[in-house]
């Protein structure tokens, strides 16, 4: 029986990063994965393929809407869905092949099959294609099995016309009417993809705001901007059903006034969140305790009630984000090694990869009001940015929330061009507990989108913004 210091179950961003860090720290490490490729949901049917399609469709959208103004003339512009999907597949393959290379480089044993506990120190791996299971012995286990799309019990998803985000990434035609249930990150990214290439898109959201977990100003601005590319929004609507008859999907919902809304389309994406995936782990055999919503219960060190068994990523509390799982993977590996790592969960940014992009970190304005914290606000619109004007990306703003007394930055919320990258400046500043004036006094290259961060901090510092 093979013996390991650490065995990681699940090869998504949390799992493979945990395995690599364990190997770097000198542990004999195994990584168990039931699917034929490594990388989990993120690399195979989530983060990476969605960004590939978002990028492709944004190129088409710009060619269709703004190239003429740039002085670029095109004839016979068309969408080739097969090529678009094939390119996406190539991007995915390059990434998952890269993970396989990293496993070999770090001398990590990759064990193919479904891992389940025999007891706290023994794991059975059953090949997904059938055959005899093998068993390994391990001192420590890191559970990193991720999540799956949440289903609505009153909707039967056939994964052909009533679909999850996985199937939404494989449609090889331009939908006539793409209906999205859910106005969160996944729903809006998928809505953007198909709206850009000419599909009619409707988004039905239960709450009265898009991306409701983020600062409300972001959702309001995003609704305005996405409305300009034709997406229709039905906020405050409670979905009551979705049925299919041939190629027609009918979605019904109750409006805020109690009336019935009926939408007919050819595809319906159910994007109401994700749920922890722990099926088949046989956690009972190891004595691992669960908590609400199907999550695994862990302590401050991400250790379960069973010493030596840890859990990270989507199966534990907190935001379901790939980079959050990565940080936790490193955290657990270093904890096992006896180090004292730290994660500040408040400073893990959230990003929406629509265009313009959306991101936030730290406290929202609503949270500060709820907690009764005295704060001040500085905001700067991209319409006042020279770089944004040059690229015709003038929608959106940067909003900085700072402590009214100390000027420490408490939260930063952005919507605009290249925000997914720009949010890192805010995270860096907040990790070092910078004040708004600290950032305002730092030199930012001109012309750049990042100047909007400096200007917002100037605005928060005695309303000193220069360019507005």
Please outline the helices and strands.
Elements: E1 3-9, H1 13-24, E2 29-33, H2 40-45, H3 47-65, H4 67-70, H5 81-105, E3 109-112, E4 114-119, E5 122-126, E6 134-143, E7 147-149, E8 162-163, H6 165-168, E9 177-181, H7 185-196, E10 200-205, H8 216-227, E11 232-235, E12 238-245, E13 248-254, E14 260-265, E15 267-270, E16 274-276, H9 283-286, E17 309-311, H10 322-336, E18 350-352, E19 357-362, H11 365-371, E20 375-381, H12 386-391, E21 397-403, E22 409-416, H13 419-431, H14 436-440, H15 451-460
Parallel strand pairs: 1-2, 1-6, 2-3, 6-17, 8-15, 9-10, 9-15, 10-11
Antiparallel strand pairs: 4-5, 5-6, 7-16, 12-13, 13-14, 18-19, 19-22, 20-21, 21-22
Helix pairs in contact: 1-10, 3-5, 3-7
Question: Describe it for me?
Answer:
With 468 residues, the chain is of the alpha/beta class. It folds into three domains: 3-149 and 275-345, FAD/NAD(P)-binding domain, CATH 3.50.50; 162-272, FAD/NAD(P)-binding domain, CATH 3.50.50; 356-460, FAD/NAD-linked reductase, C-terminal dimerisation domain (Enolase-like, domain 1), CATH 3.30.390. 33% of the residues lie in helices and 25% in strands. The chain is built from 15 helices and 22 strands. The strands form five sheets. Strands 1, 2, 3, 4, 5, 6 and 17 form a seven-stranded mixed β-sheet that branches. Strands 8-15-9-10-11 form a five-stranded parallel β-sheet. The chain starts with a strand and ends in an 8-residue tail after the last helix. The model has no long low-confidence stretch (mean pLDDT 97). GO terms for molecular function: dihydrolipoyl dehydrogenase (NADH) activity; flavin adenine dinucleotide binding. Its EC number is 1.8.1.4. Keywords: Disulfide bond, FAD, Flavoprotein, NAD, Nucleotide-binding, Oxidoreductase, Redox-active center.
